[in-house]
Amino acid sequence: MSGSEHKEEILDQFTRQAAQFAQSATARDEELLRTILRMAEPQPRDAMLDVACGPGMLVCAFAPQVRHATGIDLTPAMLDQARAAQDAQGLANISWDCGDVTALPYQDGSFNIVTCRYAFHHFPDPLAVLTEMRRVCAPGGRVVVVDSAPEAGKAAAFNAMEKLRDPSHTRALPREELAALYAEVGLPAPRVEHFRLELDLESFLARSYPREGDEVRLRAVFESALVEDMLDLQPRQVDGKIFFAVPTAILSARIPHAA
């Protein structure tokens, strides 16, 4: 799939998902939001940027803690949801931009905190995005990446499942590979914390738009995973309903000050 075709797939999927995603546990998990804030160490004079911000929940969480918060996303429908969240919370110190996160429209060192949450697995070239995140982050600033991070030995099965569910999915990286990206862009070894995002299969599928016939295949994959957890999701069945926990890595590194 070409770069332009992948962008079209992203726009298609997330335009359709926007309203449901804005209300989802993935977007709204309070414990995860608190963990990201703690690891980013926001200060009142900081400017922060959230890359591929989606419905803006992380930007809105940072806004009361910083001087100004900015979100950028490729999908206008997601930014509509983000503006609605801002208005509902009465937050004035936020800007929203529509654009390609592989070429961020900001000057070098414009932000003190640059984050990206649950989006790296959609990027054909995550290294290019992290390179841009580092570029726009000032010396002394923090670069924070949060994403699904399956165990290395189960990553192939996890990614095959996610590709069935969401055709815009590329590849979720094991935490070791995510950490290695930091070294590739010249960042110090990140502090890493681990988190499990609790979801249920019906809600998961309700905000998904798999291709025709793939929902049946997805359900079969989850049924099999109840017997042997080849997806690294710790699935369990309660009263006929399947619950699972997505392995998540939170990585944070501070850009060194110039010598």
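The record above closes out task 2.4. Task 2.5 opens with a second protein, given below.
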Amino acid sequence: MSETKPRTAANIEARERAADYLVRRHYFRWPEALPWLIAIACFFLFPDRMTFGNQVLIMVMFALSLDLILGYAGIVTLGHAAFFGVGAYVAALLSLRLGWTEPVSGIIASGLVAGVFGIVVGWFILRYRGLTLLMLTIAFAAMLQESGNLRADFTGGYDGLPGLTFDPLFGYFQYDLYGHTSYIYVLVVLAIVFYFVRRIVYSPFGQALTGIRENVRRMLAIGSPVHHRLVTVYAISAAIAGVAGALFTQTNAYVTLTVFDFDVSAKVMVMLIVGGTGRLYGAFIGALVYMFMEDYFSKLSPTFWQFGIGLMLVLIVLFARRGLLGLLEDIGTRLKRRKTT
């Protein structure tokens, strides 16, 4: 009897700690403010680099959409550019063909259309796993790109749709040449999307996705609607990618079929590998580092800049397998252990 009491007390204490963790896990912590403070500071420190900043923020959002399905649900895809491209072309065609040039409603419409595509495509392809799923995602993006090329009279083909016009933001804020208005616009949309994704990740639905990622058969055994949840998160991810694509069109005032390229899907995958999957802020670090290195290496050597990107990726895979954010976490853990000892 004397042995069972301490064990019971220990079990109760462990349950209380677990319950406390579940209650507090979604609380914001002060380090989470750093990326946003840095983004705001860049607006004032680099006013002549806002165009580059816009592209970084858009790629952060695009990488965040991929992280939601790859890092948390375990859905491996190399065709995520399909939804980015759908969002980009919806915003462009609404402006050019229908005269719908209001930007906020444009990104909402783009996200909805991309989300519908995500539901339809996800319902069929998410029944498969592994290499089959990977090839299906690539094939879907390629089919969309070629469909756009066949209807070049409507989509502009590989010549694209340049010279798009959009109304001032909320009717008051004009888009300036240096991209200051666009930067604030994209940053606010990114903050809203990030808050939404963060709520999903720390919700019971997000924990179910993690369970599916870790062990699909076990989740099926306990009666979890695996396919339904995978399709749901796939549609949400597609909608976010569509919003990112629409912002790309609105901030650049043009779009071409290259938004569907395999290179776009591969680029965002590399960003997540660099930053770290399944960590939310890995998308921030990965997109920033990749875009900065791409810009630096392309200026250093316009012909062989991809060698530098490849070398960076090799080093990260060899020495920081959980990405740069995972490496920072490991360093922080080691420092804490040294302080305690």
